[in-house]
Design goal:
Number of strands: 15
CATH superfamily of the largest domain: AICAR transformylase, duplication domain
Number of helices: 14
Strand content: 15-25%
Structural class: alpha/beta
Largest sheet: 6 strands, mixed
CATH architecture of the largest domain: 3-Layer(aba) Sandwich
Shape: globular
Number of domains: 3
CATH class of the largest domain: Alpha Beta
Distance between the termini: 28 Å
Strand order of the largest sheet: 3-8-7-6-4-5
Helix content: 25-40%
CATH topology of the largest domain: Cytidine Deaminase, domain 2
Length: 392
């Protein structure tokens, strides 16, 4: 198959639409179920590159949850503790496979953004992973293969219309890539930068040693940023992205957005949130929405009379700002990657509020010394990679 016809492009009025190999070769994919669209394939191919690199860098199975050409979450297959299993709504499963753990983490870190995602998996999709995917609202999945059980499960989703794509894991694109904008062809060398320990050896802060877990988290952050629309910042902890800020014109706004997502991830683990008395009648998506509002500034939208009765069996207490800050002060050891230099130290001040202790960024700002001094003030370790990771 050299080409694949699409129903339409980014929008229904954009016709005709297709994907094809300009050199006449075979497409490196097989569509096993459904009819993926233009944006589905953009998410699938970006996500596949991300998980393939995560697997190469860490040696662990990897998964990502993509929405609108940026990852909502990305993770490697480390085991889930009881708390994470509960906030990711997978506590009813025991002994999940490493790949299923990776997807639970990638999907669960920011479930609001992951709603209706396109999934990429680094390894052959197994039964455990397929069962998790089956019960989530999702557009499709791409993986190098599927077990018979997994494929049968996925083909039942959406009455047989769920998008399932198999990609040739040995496929490698040409070193030069091209795209058109306004009828004009752009050409550049592919972003083939390898994210490894050597890239993170230039410590510029007083603290110059980091644990192995933090080094892995920084690699996860930088690899994630390679496939996130710029400007982008990524907070990582325990082998998974916990806050991704994408496509912001101002870097500090990007840091604030990613930091707020990281805060929400940690606030969801507070006993006051874990023990919310949800009604059995509401769905997981409705619980996600309610939690997001409850831990935010507009909490009365779910606690007002006439509202809480539709969600909870009894009215929860307000989660006060003081309680939230006290809980967030316990979050430590977070890694932070940035796709370009921090131009002001306000980014570091914001990162500190979300427990950041390790940073990787290119360096090169005229205010590098201010940024370094702020890191030193908080005892952070920061490396300059010397490499920008813009993605558009």
């Amino acid at each position: 198959m050299n080409e694949f016809a699409l129903k339409y492009g980014c929008n229904p009025n954009q016709k005709p639409s297709r994907i094809y190999m300009a050199d006449g070769s075979e497409l490196p994919i097989k569509v096993l179920s459904g009819r993926p669209g233009y944006i589905n394939f953009l998410d699938a191919f970006n996500g596949w590159q991300l998980v393939r690199e995560l697997k190469e860098a860490t040696g662990l199975p990897a998964a990502t949850s993509f929405k609108h050409v940026s990852p909502a979450g990305a993770a490697v297959g480390l085991p889930l503790d009881e708390t994470l299993a509960k906030i990711y709504w997978v506590e009813d499963y025991e002994n999940l496979s490493p790949l299923a753990c990776a997807y639970a983490r990638a999907r669960g870190a920011d479930r609001m953004s992951s709603f209706g995602d396109f999934i990429s998996l680094s390894d052959v999709c197994d039964k455990d992973t397929a069962l998790l995917i089956k019960r989530e609202v999702s557009d499709g999945v791409i993986a190098p293969g599927y077990t018979e059980e997994a494929l049968a499960i996925l083909k039942e989703k959406k009455k047989g219309n769920y998008n399932v794509i198999q990609i040739d894991e040995n496929y490698r694109p040409e070193p030069i890539e091209r795209k058109q904008v306004y009828g004009i062809t752009f050409e550049q060398g592919r972003q083939e930068l390898k994210i490894d320990d050597a890239l993170m050896s230039d410590f510029v802060t007083e603290k110059k040693e980091i644990p192995a877990e933090a080094a892995m988290d920084l690699k996860i952050a930088l690899i994630t940023l390679k496939y996130t629309q710029s400007n982008s910042v990524c907070f990582v902890k325990g082998g998974q992205a916990i806050g991704i800020g994408a496509g912001q014109q101002s870097r500090v706004h990007c840091t604030r957005l990613a930091g707020q997502k990281a805060d929400n991830w940690f606030l969801r683990q507070c006993p006051k949130v874990l023990n919310l008395p949800f009604s059995d009648k509401i769905t997981r998506a409705e619980r996600d929405n309610a939690i997001d509002v409850y831990i935010g500034a507009e909490y009365m939208d779910v606690l007002a009379d006439g509202a809480w009765q539709k969600i909870f069996t009894e009215k929860p207490e307000v989660f006060t700002a003081e309680e939230k800050r006290a809980w967030l002060d316990q979050m430590q050891g977070v890694a932070l990657g940035s796709d370009a230099f921090f131009p002001f130290s306000d980014n570091i001040e914001r990162a500190h509020k979300s427990g950041v202790a390790y940073i990787a960024e290119p360096g090169g700002s005229v205010r590098d010394e201010d940024v370094i001094a702020t890191c030193n003030k908080y005892g952070m370790a920061m490396v300059f990679t010397g490499i920008r990771l813009f993605h558009h």
